Structure formats: structure tokens, C-alpha cells
Amino acid sequence: MRTRGAVKFIVWTAVAIALCVYALYAHETGKIDQMYYYATNLDGYAVNTNEFFNATKEKPALLQIGKADEIKGLMAVPVKKGDRLPKGANGVIEKKVAEEGKRAKVEGDKLVVTVPWQIKETKGFKYKDTFIHKGVQTDPWSGAWNVAMTIAIGLALGFMAEGFTDLLGWKIKKIEQFGH
Amino acid sequence: MFDFTVAGHVVPVFLLVLTGFTVGVVGGFIGVGGGYMVTPALIVFGFPGYIASGTDACHIAGKAVISSIRHRQLGNIDWTIALGMVGGTMLGVELGVRLLNYTKAIGLSGVTLLAASVIVMIGLFVYTQLETQKSHKKLEADQKAGKELGREMKVSKMPLFFQRIPIMPIIKAKRARLVISMWVIVIVGMFTGVLAGFLGVGGGFIRVPSMIYVIGTTSHLAVGTDLVEIVVSGGYGALRQSMSGNVDFMAVFFMIIGAMLGAQFGSLATSFVRGPAIRYILSYSLILATTGAFLRLIYVLTGAKIEWLSFIAVVFTLGEMVFLCLFICTLVYFAVRYQHGKSCPAWVPPLVVQAS
């Protein structure tokens, strides 16, 4: 009984550790984050509005236009409808708005923002009328990955605990539902 | 501190492990997922509401797997009933969600939902509490008369009515030792599924009393069987939530680590007690959750202006988690004392077994 318990405990502990390490590795390497992304619902420039909350006509914010996977500081990444938004983006300035030039305009390789964008929060995303997004999108396999990992970790931890009590020699008997 | 990148929040890991542990104890003991406790807790920790709800759904599935493994060892699962209920529940949840969308479309959802949950839960609490008190008294009387006490004691005659319904196919649930129409099991699953889908909860606190009072299983079997049911329905819910991007897997991960310990304790604790003890904790869980929902109902009815009502509702829900966990620990403590021939309060002996 104890030998079987020990084997069970060792095997399932190894499985549980492997799964936990894999989960932490997936987090550290950004694999989990990559399953979640926002997609833009319009053509324009992905920006981080926190970087130019104090922009004015007198003191405009100059955002460097260019392709990037992550927005760091005053950057504007051109995006088209349906594109995955770069990391750090919390809004999109519509192309039409930039062409009108009232609140933002393109000058060479810079996007000049002349007003502080008033923002309000919704579903983890900040937007107003000009900041429209499709909502959070996920990799089609992320749901299956999450559930499979949850169930696998649950199974490994459950059997590991069962093996542990067997190893200790605890006699866990079936409850007599109808007996005394 | 851990940076939960999907939730966009930094939270101390121990808070999530502790939440998992606490809900693991309660869930393992009374057979519920504990969604009505975890979601508010995650919101208090700073998770956005939709991430809290999705993360909770996913964690419930993992926790139910752990508890089910232990309940299988304890013989608390009737697989025939579990499989029969799964089908009905899935269908019921879909119907419940559609009903919810309909009430939303006619502009009734918030108040209707809360009012419905308060009515359902008060009804379940009153019935469970009255029946359990009667059973407790009967156990006390039998003990005084020197009779041997059984693991289960129920005074409700309701299951007999449902077990006599002669609609084919009639099935035999071996572990639960009952013969019943499959349709009763499926319809109970469907009905509780509708309520669960409509109220937006896992539904364990509706299914467990339904299994005890309608199908007629023992309290222990209802707990274990419901947890198996939660693995399937929770897994389905987790899949849907994950595909909507509402799950922070790392938060699920840390809660499952805590739940592993809590679920072991909660599940093993059932071997120390008789059926009415489980039903007492279940009924207290129901009334505490109802009070939280009632506070939120008043908050909504007063136009969401009295902020402290919402705050108290959340604090109450968190307090409930700790209270139930301590109650179960106390019960096990007294059970162990009783088994070793030491003194314990007079209400304890009829509720616990002499040798587990």
C-alpha cells in the first residue's frame, strides 16, 4: 500500500511540477499574453494615450510614426482595421481624424497631437469616440489551452495528494452511505 | 507580488492562494464551486469584473477535479446520476442564458436577476434549514434512546414522490441505492441549469439540495456527484470565458495551488460528519450568499447611489468565505475530540461520526 502510494506520489508530483514549470515558463516568455490581444476596428494610429494626456495646441505632443510590436513612449503605430494592436497601445487615433487635422495631424514622420484626449475606461480598454476597438480577441486555441492546463494541473495535484495520503498510510475508506 | 498581465493588475500571490484554499475547503465540503464567493474576492483584489468572472469559472473546473478525485476515493460519487445530470444541466444553462438575454432585452435584467436569486435562495435556505433541524432533533432523540445512528438522516418525504414517477427509462443508481426515472435526473439538471444560467452562477448550491430532496441521494453523495458535474459544466463555462479573453490563467494557477490543500481538507472533512452537518453548512452558505445578494438588490433599487451598500455586500461575501471555512474547521475539531472521548458541545455528537 505504502510502496504503491510512494510511486503514485512521485509520479504525480513529477507531472505536477512539470506542468507548473511549463505554466510559469509560458507566462515568463509571454506565450500566455500572446494568446490575448486587442484588434482595431478602424484604420489609424495605435497610441498610448497616457503619454500625451497634457498635450495642448501650444505644446503639442510629437508621436514618432513607425511599425513596432510594442509602444514605448511617444509612438504612433499605423494600423488597419482588424490588425492586432501593439503591446502598450490603449487606443487608436482614427486616420480620418488625423487627416482633418483639428486634434491631430501628420507632419512628416510625426503625428502631432494638439489636444489632451479625454478617456474613459471600458472593459480594460480606454477609449472615447475616436478610440474604437473590436474588444479583446483571443487565439482560437487559447480557450482549449486554458481548460486543458487547468484540468491537467487539477488531475496531477489531485492524484499527487491521493498518493501522499497513501504514502503516509492513512486508511481512507469508502464512506458507508447507508450504514452506521 | 505578481504581475497578472491579462488582468492588468499586480496582486500578492498569497491572496489568491488563500482564496483558493478557503473556497477549496467550503467547496470540498458542501460540493459547490463557490463562484458567488470568488468573483467578488477577485474584484476586491482589483481584477476587472469580466476577468474576475472568467477566471473564477476556470478555477472552479480545476478545483472540482481535485475534490472529485478525493470524493471518488471516499465513495461519494454516483456516476449514473452525475452523467444524467450533466446533459440536463448543459441544456438548462443555455436556456437560462437565453432567458437572461430576453429579460435584458425588455430592460429587466438587473433587478429581476437579483430578486429571483434572493427568492430562490431564501426558499432553499428555509426548506433546508427546517428539514435539517428536524433531522438533527431526530438524531438526538435516537442517540438518547441508545439507537445506532446512520450516516444519513433525512425527514423529507419529497424524494419518494419523484422516485415513483413511472416514465421510462427507469435507471438504477447503484451507489445511491435508488431506482428512478432518468427523466427526473435530466429535468432536475435542466431546471437547476436554467436557474444557474439565469442567475449567472455555477449552480452547485441549487443542485446539491435538489439532489438530496428531489432525487433522494444522501448528502455525501450529492456533494461528490455535484463536483463531478461541475468539472464538466465548469470546464464548458471556462472554455466559453477563455475564448472571450476573460481568463487570467496565472490567477487560476495560483488559486488551484491553494485549492489543492483546501479541497483535500474539505473533502476529507465529510468523512467525519453525518448528512445533516453538510446540510447545515450548505444552508448557512445559502443565507449568507442571499444576504449579500439582498444588499446588492437594495443598492440597485436605490439607484446605485448608496455606495456603502455595495461595499458592505462585497465585505459580507468575503466574510462569508472565512466564516464557513472556520465553521467546517470547528466541526472537524469537535469531531476529532468526540472520537477521542473528549468533551464537546451537546449539539455536536449527533452530527459527527464516532469513527471515520
Summarize the structure.
Chain A has 180 residues and is of the alpha+beta class.
Strand residues, percent of chain A: 15-25%
Number of helices of chain B: 12
CATH architecture of the largest domain in chain A: Beta Complex
- Find the biggest chain interface: A-B, 39 and 56 residues
Q: What is the fold's blueprint, element by element?
A:
The complex is a heterodimer of chains A (180) and B (356).
Chain A: H1 2-28, H2 31-35, E1 36-40, E2 44-47, E3 61-65, E4 75-79, E5 91-94, H3 95-100, E6 104-107, E7 110-113, E8 120-122, E9 125-127, E10 133-138, H4 142-168
Parallel strand pairs in A: 3-4
Antiparallel strand pairs in A: 1-10, 2-4, 2-5, 3-7, 6-7, 8-9
Helix pairs in contact in A: 1-4
Chain B: E1 2-4, E2 9-11, H1 13-30, H2 35-44, H3 49-74, H4 79-105, H5 109-144, H6 158-163, E3 170-173, E4 178-181, H7 182-199, H8 204-215, H9 219-243, H10 249-269, H11 275-301, H12 307-339
Antiparallel strand pairs in B: 1-2, 3-4
Key traits:
heterodimer, A: about 180 residues, alpha+beta, Molybdopterin biosynthesis moeA protein, domain 3, 6-stranded mixed beta sheet, two-stranded antiparallel sheet, 4 helices, 10 strands, B: about 350 residues, mainly alpha, two-stranded antiparallel ribbon, 4 strands, about 75% helix
Descriptive account of the structure:
The complex is a heterodimer of chains A (180) and B (356). By secondary structure, chain A is of the alpha+beta class. Chain A has two domains: 59 residues; 90 residues, Molybdopterin biosynthesis moeA protein, domain 3. Chain A has four helices and ten strands. Chain A has a six-stranded mixed sheet with strand order 5-2-4-3-7-6. In chain A, helix 1 runs antiparallel to helix 4. Chain B starts with a strand and ends in a 17-residue tail after the last helix. Chain B is built from twelve helices and four strands; from the N terminus they run ββααααααββαααααα. Chain B is globular. Chain B has one domain. In chain B, a hairpin with a 4-residue loop joins strand 1 and strand 2. With 356 residues, chain B is mainly α. In chain B, the strands form two sheets. Chain B has a two-stranded antiparallel ribbon. In chain B, helix 4 runs parallel beside helix 7 and helix 8 packs antiparallel against helix 9. At the A-B interface, helix 1, strand 10 and helix 4 of A face helix 3, helix 9 and helix 10 of B.
